[in-house]
């Protein structure tokens, strides 16, 4: 692996305003922990304890519109997932899995996880989170890209 992405990440959150949360902004007190299963359509699954910043905390400061229906999580690789806000809000952008910094073991430092969301949408290397207000007839999958991938993210069978 070329370089450890260590504590050098930033996530830009876009609502009515835009703000960037950086690794330096994250203190022990702002971290939250959750047990979440990663479950892929291929059948692979595992449970892990994730530690990171709650999605609600990330949205603070970006003033997501009251009509927000979905959050789009975008990776630095182009991979992107569109998740109903009610599901996403129960999740976190993790920086640790089972007590280990993701940046230590993986080619990415951050990743979205949330209970009840399928593993394909657990975007690795989150770079941007956008609040969307979609009308009921909209197709949320048009706002995602679950194919494009950076090779070092070693996508398992989608
Ligand atoms: N950026 C990025 N995130 C991604 C993927 C990817 O290809 N790129 N693959 C997804 C898929 S299909 C699954 S099942 C999980 C796999 O997570 P794991 O490596 O922890 O098993 O990551 C998801 N997150
Ligand atoms: Mo997957």
TrEMBL record:
This is Oxidoreductase molybdopterin binding domain-containing protein. The lineage of its organism: Archaea, Methanobacteriati, Methanobacteriota, Stenosarchaea group, Halobacteria. Residues 136-158 are annotated as: Disordered. Residues 6-133 form the Oxidoreductase molybdopterin-binding domain. Gene3D superfamilies: Oxidoreductase, molybdopterin-binding domain. InterPro entries: OxRdtase_Mopterin-bd_dom, OxRdtase_Mopterin-bd_sf. Residues 139-151 have a biased composition (Acidic residues). Signal peptide: none annotated. Pfam families: Oxidored_molyb. It comes from Halogeometricum rufum.
